Amino acid sequence: MTTDRLPEHTERATTACRAAKCGAKQYEILDSKIKGLELRVNSKGKEWSLRYRVKVGEKWLNKRLPLGDFPTISVANARSAAQQAKADISRGADPMGQLQQEAERRAEAIEIKAREAASRVSVADAFERWMLSDKPLNRADGGAELRRSFSVDVLPKIGSKPMPEVTQADIYGITDAILARGANRRAQVVLSEVKQFFAYASARQIITSDPCDQIKKKDIGKQPEGRERFLDAWELRALDQALHRSSLNRVTHIIYMLQVALTCRINELCQAAWTEIDWSRREWTIPADKNKSRREITVALSRYSQTLFRELQSLTGHTQWLYPGLDELKPVNRKQATNHARDRQRPEGEKPIKGRTVETRSLVVGKEQWTPHDLRRSGVTLMQRMGVPTEVSERCLNHTEGNKTKRTYHRHDYDLEMRRAWYLLSEALSVITGDQGDDFLKQLEADDHLDLEDQVGFMGLVKKFYVKPTE
Questions:
Q1: Half-sphere exposure in the Cβ direction for 131 (13 Å, CA)
Q2: Under a CB-based contact definition with an 8 Å cutoff, are residues 36 and 52 in contact?
Q3: Facing residues of 38 across strands?
Q4: Per-residue pLDDT tens for 218-271?
Q5: Same domain assignment for residues 98 and 193
Q6: Sheet holding 297-300, edge to edge
Q7: Which domain holds residue 95?
């Protein structure tokens, strides 16, 4: 809003300026003496400015040139500055444009200094900054594995280098060294972590060029083939018996069989706390932050799995964790659980690793080595053999539905079907590992060789042999 004009007389104009009331709504008082000069009044104070037009290219633009605040700049000084500016404008100058150019030059100078400062930031220093950001800190382990990974494979090679000097060749040097020791999968994981690190540095303008941009995961080592290994009914019985004969601790034995029965990941059991078990409801709730899918899942505990859990409780129930580590205040490391299986399936004739078990063949089952993750696959394969639909078994695995349309329109939660699937699986495991397991497997083999219309089927045989325990 524009209101009264300032009088031409300097003293009266000054009085009018002092009398102008500052408020939330802005208004301008035009000067009667110098065309275009105005006093802008708002909640922040009173400011002199000159409005003018200037031709830029083919267009005329309206501009406003700030001249300073009143009363710091008096009426006389504001008029003098406005007259000088108007004289410059009449000669083709654009004072506001010049101010903007000067501001841009200052901003550019600041940016150049920032780039120069960034060029002195080493990879190690930038890594420490990254570790304090949200993505590393929000990992389940708070970034501990990420720090260990960089400390072993990345920082020894490029830690002292200034960030802008890291090249694509440096990145390949890191992954090639890992590949040279036969760690194909490790090289790909490290590449993924390094790419995340340099993406962070690029976003924070620590670097202007990302050395990882042109490197793809497919360029590093061999692409892993999806594992297909699963243990069939005969191998599962053999494994259970081998675990009983082995010197492996009973806690790990139970954990392996629970993996089959609950179709869960080894890490979910390794990180599980006793507080997650609801004995009255016969359920185990795996929190979202403890599983790969980042979705909470409630697993139904059948009589078979509940019996194993009760035995496990008698062994580790004095701690917080189902599977405590050597330091019982902490859960076991997943790699330790995996190494127990690997160390007992070493190639024939190969010496044991120093400080590890000498029973290098005690858990060999079938012709191919198995891993803890294969036990999860074995459990869900048994479910399928018993007729559990894929829609149900996938939910037991806590997998996300890949089809967006299905996710949108198919809203049934399958809770009852999942519970039934876990119970059926446990019935099968009770039979396979139980006293009549050998008889069951003999009849199963014979049944498999009958004509289709004469077969009892896997489910039928399980129901025939299964004896429901008394409460």
A1: 17
A2: yes
A3: 30, 49
A4: 888 776 666 789 999 999 999 999 999 999 999 999 999 999 999 999 999 999
A5: no
A6: 277-278, 283-286, 297-300
A7: 2-110
